[in-house]
Amino acid sequence: MKLILPLSIILSLHLSTALFGQPNCNWFKYQGDMKKYEACLASEKCAGHYQFSKEYQLALDNAIDIDSSFAYAYRAKSTAYLKSGDFISWKRLMDTAVKYNASDNLDYRGWCRFQFFRDYQGAIDDILLLKKLTNNRIGYSINSDYHLDIALSLCYKSIGQPEKAIEIFLEKMSDSTYSPGLFDFIHLGVLYLEIGDYKKAIEYLNIQESTNDLAENRFYKAITYRHLKDKENWELNLNKSKAYYKSNKKMFDPYTEQIDKIYLEDILEEEKSGLQQPFGGKGK
User: Fold this and answer.
1) pLDDT in the model for residue 281
2) What HEC string does the chain produce?
């Protein structure tokens, strides 16, 4: 027999399950799924233990023993394998988590495929399926740096479909409820640079400059101005890029190299290339 709870309590139970790592066990109890409720309670015993510890893993194993379809336990177990570099075990566990609860786990698997493995087609498949299952409410990456629609765009860029990537980007930017991420306009500017639309490239790199000015957008602006044969602006932006890089004003992720990230060697190589070629007059 199910309890009849006020809507506010029901939403609180459900959202606490959806928004945070550890599920709210009372949600399963309310749903009448006592097996998952007990598995959930067992999984709570991993709290306070290091992810690589025997106690942490045993608590999750016990949860799986209670209910072998309790998806959270597989996902929680997988994290230690991802961090230790055992990607085969990570994927096996995450595939099982997706099998039992796709809508709550495709975001994590898809993002990891993109961020850690550069499995762009796999990430595309996961994100598109998630969009279908959630009526397009797919949310953000685990590190919160990217909306998954932007990650989807970058996946298409990475498999050689820049026009498709731009289409997804612009559709997201047209959403009045969306707040652009820290690096969105760098990526969009670079996409236009790559297809040779230098006017649009500068437009979006300028927007990045006004919101989160970094070594990367200045570097790509310099390259754009080199294509336009504008030596003055090429030099100005390349010098800014070098200064920003040396002062640590640059893209950063503690785990992986981001798409469109640059290094000091890239700046120095561009500086050398630009000085060795004639610029002529300013481009139009």
Assistant:
1) 46
2) CCCCCCHHHHHHHHHHHHHCCCCCHHHHHHCCCHHHHHHHHHHHHHCCCCCCCHHHHHHHHHHHHHCCCCHHHHHHHHHHHHHHCCHHHHHHHHHHHHHHCHHHHHHHHHHHHHHCCCCHHHHHHHHHHHHHHCCCCCCECCCCCCEHHHHHHHHHHHCCCHHHHHHHHHHHHCCCCCCCCCCHHHHHHHHHHHCCCHHHHHHHHHHHHHHHCCHHHHHHHHHHHHHCCCHHHHHHHHHHHHHHHHCCCCCCCCCCCCCCCCCHHHHHHHHHHHHHCCCCCCCC
